[in-house]
Amino acid sequence: MTGTLVLAGTPIGDIADAPPRLAEELAAADVVAAEDTRRLRRLTQALGVTPRGRVLSYFEGNESARTPELVAELVGGARVLLVTDAGMPSVSDPGYRLVAAAVEQDVRVTAVPGPSAVLTALALSGLPVDRFCFEGFLPRKAGERLSRLREVAAERRTLVYFEAPHRLDDTLAAMAEVFGADRRAAVCRELTKTYEEVRRGPLAELARWAAEGVRGEITVVVEGAPETGPEELDAQELVRRVRVREEAGERRKEAIAAVAVEAGVPKRVVFDAVVAAKRAGE
């Protein structure tokens, strides 16, 4: 018989949030795959448990190479426990490749539910939580980041992002540019830790605050687009938006198509506005 892959949630801050089953699984697993074995050691010491199985590292750098090894263990009947540094495996952390490979081999996959920065931030944000989408980390390059944000500019569901503290001010400024300076948001910092902080306000205001410097683990929650329908934009504004996108690296054809979607008008309307502006400038 094949074994079982267990995805275990770990505390995102307060060790007391560790689910009771976590200690049991750590003690019983044949193999414990950890994103950081040093953090795992601190976790097991805090929980007062000693893994009886083999402990090995499983992180972004070796995920592809180590997955076949773990799948072989599973096919051979082992119980493999996967833990990451904080939160649930696979959610912006290692795990997806292993789950997909295990499913392909008809290996049972289960989970020990645990803390989640995504859900915790949503609950604390004060923004609508009935419908939301998780966007993970945005690209580091400015142009790629703007393009990704524009893809969801009309998204009505609440948006959740992870971000590094040293990029937070640039990200919030980009969000204010794409979503609007007054779009409501919440920056959740150091959740469940000693210096937990939730800063709420318009994106432009949060960007100014973040420019002063922010530390810690960051989750950003952004209000969805208003349900008031597309904006009524004049030709000059349509042209301006196309130029902004072109300056960010988009081809004109792609920029025109994206602006048409934003404005809720046919592409021909935007194209004609761009052509007219070009002629007027000649």
From TrEMBL:
One GO BP annotation of this record: methylation
Function according to Swiss-Prot or TrEMBL: Catalyzes the 2'-O-methylation of the ribose of cytidine 1402 (C1402) in 16S rRNA.
Name used for this protein in its record: Ribosomal RNA small subunit methyltransferase I
InterPro entries in the cross-refs: 4pyrrol_Mease, 4pyrrol_Methylase_sf, 4pyrrole_Mease_sub1, 4pyrrole_Mease_sub2, rRNA_ssu_MeTfrase_I
Catalytic activity: cytidine(1402) in 16S rRNA + S-adenosyl-L-methionine = 2'-O-methylcytidine(1402) in 16S rRNA + S-adenosyl-L-homocysteine + H(+)
Statement: the UniProt record of this protein carries the keyword rRNA-binding: no
Keyword S-adenosyl-L-methionine: yes
Enzyme Commission number(s) from the entry: 2.1.1.198
The organism of origin for this protein: Streptomyces nogalater
Chain ranges of the Tetrapyrrole methylase domain: 4-207
Pfam families (UniProt xref): TP_methylase
Major localization class: cytoplasm
Subcellular localization(s) per the UniProt record: Cytoplasm
Similarity comment text for this entry: Belongs to the methyltransferase superfamily. RsmI family.
Molecular function GO labels: methyltransferase activity
Keywords: Cytoplasm, Methyltransferase, rRNA processing, S-adenosyl-L-methionine, Transferase
